[in-house]
Structures are given as structure tokens and as C-alpha cells.
């Protein structure tokens, strides 16, 4: 059956009329902030205290958009006679977001959890050279990083949490054992200290006397 001429136009106008009578659901940005998913890849936040300047993130970055500068400092010995140690101190940590392709490799390879995804996306600039953000700005974005999702009910407990829990239980048991009073012996029994005290008070006999006393009845019987 051939379509009726103008039926497609009529259907389109009907959809337009239905839409015009409905209330708009468009979020008026920027007055209304969008509800972003938890795993949104906005920008990369830096937790500076965890950074050890291992340079893994800069070496693994496909775009080479991470710039890191550091210097070494000598740490005095913690104990007398110990050796001095050197550590890396972070001087600069910058990311050029005009080159970044948001692959997340730097976050995955960081062994010390110093980089995190933040859903922050309002960092546009009028000059492309201003898209290179230093560590101060990256640190500010750390406060917008969402909390990690909860573990599944059947998931295995992390090793770090299990080790910390066992150490806390062992310490609590030791403290409870020290605070508990000593057990009292049951009625009719003597403690080891009382037995030693009674043995010290009782007179001791020479070994020769005891032997003579045991041998004397045997000699009388022979006579």
C-alpha cells in the first residue's frame, strides 16, 4: 500500500505539538550544575604528600604532558650511629591539559596513590598556554575527588586492613591481660610460692642421718 502523501509531515507536526505542551527538562547550565556519574573523567588531582617523585607517571604518559622537577635532600640519621639518607623533594608537578587525552594511565601506574580522577570540568581558559596547571591547582582539585565506592558484601578484606585489625586485636588482648588481676588458687590448694616458703621453714636433715635411720632396723633384724 502506497503511503499517503503528506503523512510524514503530519506525524512530525504531531510530535512537535506534543513536545510543545510538555514542561522543559533542560538543565539551565551554569545556574544548575549537572549530575555527573561517579567515574567522570574531569581533571586529575594531585595528593602531594604521597608523591615520591618516582617519575612513573611522566614516563608512561603517551602525550608527555606531565612536567616534574625535584631535588635531593639529606635526612639525618634517626638513631645514633646510623647512616644519613637522601630523599627526593618535589619542586614542580604540572599537567598540560591542552595535550592530555584523559587516558588515565598516569593514575593507574602511580604506585603510591598520588593521582586521582576528579569530576571537576570547569577549567576552560581563553589562552591555551593557561591550560598548564601547576601543583597548587592540582591540589585544590583533590577536594572534589569523590569517595571510593564501597566493597561488595562478598569481597575479600584488603590485606592492609586485615593486618591492622589483627595488630589492634593483639594489642588490646595484651593490655587486657596486664590489667586483669592474678587468678586466685582454688580452696585446699597451695601455690608454688607457698610450697617454697614451707620448704624453707622446715628443718633439713643431713643425708647421713637419714641413711642410718633407714639401715638400723634392717641390722637389728639380722641380729
From TrEMBL:
Subunit structure: NDH-1 is composed of 14 different subunits. Subunits NuoA, H, J, K, L, M, N constitute the membrane sector of the complex.
Cofactor binding summary note: Binds 2 [4Fe-4S] clusters per subunit.
Domain 4Fe-4S ferredoxin-type positions: 42-71, 91-120
Biological source species: Streptomyces fimbriatus
Catalysis: reaction(s): a quinone + NADH + 5 H(+)(in) = a quinol + NAD(+) + 4 H(+)(out)
PROSITE patterns reported in the protein's UniProt record: 4FE4S_FER_1, 4FE4S_FER_2
UniProt protein name: NADH-quinone oxidoreductase subunit I
Biased composition (Basic and acidic residues): 156-169
Gene: nuoI
Membrane topology category: Peripheral membrane protein
